[in-house]
Design brief:
By secondary structure, this protein is mainly beta. It has a domain of 77 residues. It contains six helices and 34 strands. The strands form 13 sheets. A four-stranded mixed beta sheet has the order 11-12-13-14, with no helix packed on it. A hairpin with a 4-residue loop joins strand 12 and strand 13. The longest helix has 14 residues. The radius of gyration is 64 Å and the shape is elongated.
């Protein structure tokens, strides 16, 4: 019940009676044992209770008017306790945004309710020399402690002791004695006034007002001593003799001609006789280290000349020894000269690329391009890496010949020549293979087959001979040298005017002498082509003589 008015015109289904007789130093207890009447107000009920209690001698005087007493409690808007409030192991419940106020009605502490809250504060007092504590508790294993200021307000404390590191976004505070360091910071703040000339001088620094040139560089000349040097970084002409000390320039002043892309340094600022030296590339300003012609390097601020890499104005020279190498990416990709007039290229793969083709030229006395190192007895391969098919030519070192791994095609009538231009194989027309030489020897360890396929004749011209077998044995009775003429065999055929039968002179004129032809030559003589007259002879030679067999026509 929050106020007396809650009971106005409320029907209470009770009647009041005394449940037991009062005794000394005790108060009677009232109980409701049924309905008293209908529509009795709370005030009327309390009046009935007070009237009943007044008839007993043991009822305290201060409750004889029970109605007025209870009404005053219920209607008091500023109630006060007569003693300490013991919650008796219970909680005090606050609505959200409600809490504690001071005796003037001002808020001192408000509580905000979070649905299903599990984390909360624990306030602990302490005994003598102890430390009271405000801590966070709850079901979570790790709980942050947040103290929040409003708006741009700050969280302020008195003396603060930090026992561990203070974590802040992006770093941490090590918890040192801020109070002790504060005096140092105050001193730093005072001495950090860079507008104070005394502070700047004490710090060994230079103020802008100490530099007279409007543009230039500072040069330290000693402890706390500096000189300012005027410069001109946007000139469009070279400096002259009047660009001197009277114009504000001094020794070591810098001048850049942006039109000619040249750099100059003043080495003498005498009035009317200034001397400027060009120090841009190729200007003859000298070298920072090493000897003339050596390329320069800067190693951690230390300048020097590369004795292994020089430039004479036209050519670069990389060393003079066999071990000086120009390396690319790794020690196995490099260029060097292993011997005089020798250039070595090393790499797992060496690519020679040019959109117009690659030329390999030789300028030695024999115009040689040499592949291989000349040692180790290795076979060397020349591989053509195509998109779909590859080609390969291999030098067989031990066998002393080339091995072609793919078919070889000679274009149109191109010749494959042997020893001299008159000995060659080519194709003078489609489906024709020409083997041309003054003498063609066909030797084999097995059988030479002629004919087979579409070959029907094999004819030498009138000036050549065909030798089968060795030069000493043109045709003999050895199985290894015999001839198989699958499509017939044509020998030399002469139709000159001869005697009947032909003489040695006739045969020598027609074919040559037996000494020239050698033993085993076979020929046919047809006197003036008059084979109908039967003037046909088969002739052959031994080493020194002609032999003849007369022919007879076969009947049709």
């Amino acid at each position: 019940m929050s106020a007396f008015e809650d009971f106005v015109n409320v029907e209470l289904p009770l009647r009041v009676g005394i449940s037991s007789l009062p005794s000394a130093n005790t108060f009677p207890r009232f109980t409701g044992v049924g309905r008293v009447c209908a529509s009795r107000t709370a005030g009327q009920v309390l009046s009935d209770i007070g009237a009943a209690a007044a008839g007993h001698t043991h009822v305290e005087a201060n409750i004889t008017d029970l109605q007025s007493y209870l009404l005053s409690v219920l209607g008091d808007t500023t109630p006060q306790l007569g003693g300490d409030l013991d919650t008796n192991a219970r909680y005090i419940l606050f609505d959200t945004a409600r809490g504690l106020r001071d005796d003037s009605g001002n808020n001192q502490m408000l509580f905000t309710k979070i649905a299903s809250a599990v984390n909360y504060f624990d306030v602990r007092n302490a005994a003598v020399a102890g430390t009271p504590r405000l801590a966070v508790l709850g079901s979570d294993a790790n709980i942050h402690f947040e103290i929040a200021a409003k708006g741009t307000g700050l969280v302020k404390t008195g003396p603060l002791e930090v026992s561990g590191a203070i974590t802040v976004p992006g770093g941490s505070v090590d918890g040192r004695d801020v109070a002790a360091d504060g005096s140092k910071l105050d001193s730093v703040e005072t001495n950090a006034d860079i507008t104070d000339a005394g502070n700047v001088a004490s710090a060994g620094a230079v103020m802008d007002s100490d530099i007279s040139p409007g543009e230039g560089f500072l040069r330290k000349t000693g402890a706390g001593a500096y000189t300012a040097h005027k410069s001109n970084l946007t000139a469009v002409v070279a400096p002259g003799v009047t660009d001197d000390s009277a114009s504000g320039y001094s020794v070591s002043s810098l001048w850049i001609d942006v039109t000619a892309d040249k750099v100059y340094v003043c080495v003498d600022a005498s009035v009317g006789a200034a001397v400027w030296k060009e120090v841009s590339g190729g200007g003859g300003g000298g070298t920072p280290g090493g000897a003339d012609t050596q390329l320069q390097y800067n190693m951690a601020g230390s300048f020097g000349g590369l004795s292994l890499l020089t430039f004479d104005g036209t050519h670069f020279l990389l060393g003079t020894g066999a071990t000086t190498r120009l390396q690319f990416r790794s020690a196995t990709s490099r260029i060097w000269s292993s011997a005089l007039n020798v250039l070595d290229l090393q790499g797992t793969t060496i690519n020679l690329k040019n959109s117009s083709g690659v030329k390999i030229l030789s300028t030695n006395s024999s115009n040689e391009v040499i592949l291989g190192g000349g040692g180790g007895g290795a076979n060397y391969k020349l591989i053509f890496d195509g998109a779909t098919n590859d080609g390969q030519i291999q030098w067989m070192e031990a066998l002393d010949y080339f091995k072609f791994h793919d078919a070889t095609l000679y274009d149109v009538a191109a010749k494959c020549m042997f020893r001299e231009v008159g000995n060659f194989i080519n194709s003078s027309a489609t489906n024709v293979l020409d083997i041309v030489a003054p003498t063609i020897n066909i030797g084999t360890l097995g059988t030479v087959k002629m004919g087979g396929g579409t070959l029907t004749t094999w004819e030498p011209d009138t000036t050549l001979m065909i030798h089968l077998g060795s030069t000493s044995k043109r045709i003999n009775n050895l199985w290894a040298d015999r001839i198989r003429a699958g499509s017939g065999f044509n020998t030399m055929y002469d139709t000159s005017n001869v005697s009947d039968p032909p003489t040695d002179a006739n045969l020598d004129a027609a074919f040559g002498t037996p000494a020239t032809l050698g033993g085993g030559f076979i020929g046919i003589v047809d006197d003036l082509g008059n084979e109908a007259a039967g003037d046909v002879w088969l002739v052959f030679t031994t080493a020194t003589k002609w032999w003849i067999i007369s022919g007879a026509a076969i009947a049709a």
